[in-house]
UniProtKB/TrEMBL annotation:
Entry GO MF terms: metal ion binding
The protein, known as: Hemerythrin-like metal-binding protein
Similarity section: Belongs to the hemerythrin family.
Keywords tagged on the record: Iron, Metal-binding
Species per Swiss-Prot/TrEMBL record: Sideroxydans lithotrophicus (strain ES-1)
Length: 141
């Protein structure tokens, strides 16, 4: 089952919401490569997820700071924890034998889905009241 963007995930900023949509797309591609047991696509997808996550987290923290969100240091800590979790997944994938079980594929897919959705719901949506005071197009870069 693929992740689907829902308006309830919106933080009220088009840049951040667009990033979240793209992260959902990447996670869906990773999930597909897990289910089809395509190691090459899986590694490429995890690399893409790692790279884009780093870019997104930097953008998100910059926007949050410029918007006056007071919890930017905490947000940065949660972002680092997410990157650490993603590195663990990437390491686990690197250690897997050529063929992995459907249980392993499902567990990793679930972990990545929760990785993003839990963060958006538990952390990013806390910014929404601050961001909604600004234009949805607010981008201090």
């Amino acid at each position: 089952m693929s992740l689907v963007w829902r308006e309830q995930l919106s933080v009220g900023n088009d840049v951040i919401d667009s990033d979240h949509r793209y992260l959902i797309d990447i996670i869906n591609r990773v999930g597909q490569s897990l289910s089809t047991r395509n190691r090459r696509e899986l590694v490429a997808g995890l690399d893409s997820l790692s790279h884009y996550s780093q870019e997104h987290f930097a953008r998100e923290e910059k926007i949050a700071h410029a918007a006056g969100y007071e919890q930017v240091p905490h947000l940065g800590e949660t972002h680092q924890a997410l990157l650490n979790q993603l590195d663990q997944v990437r390491q686990e994938v690197g250690e897997m034998v050529q063929v992995w079980s459907s249980e392993t594929a499902e567990r990793l897919t679930r972990l990545l889905r929760n990785w993003l959705i839990d963060h958006v719901i538990k952390e990013d949506l806390l910014m929404k009241p601050v961001l909604q005071k600004l234009s949805p197009l607010f981008d201090p870069r």
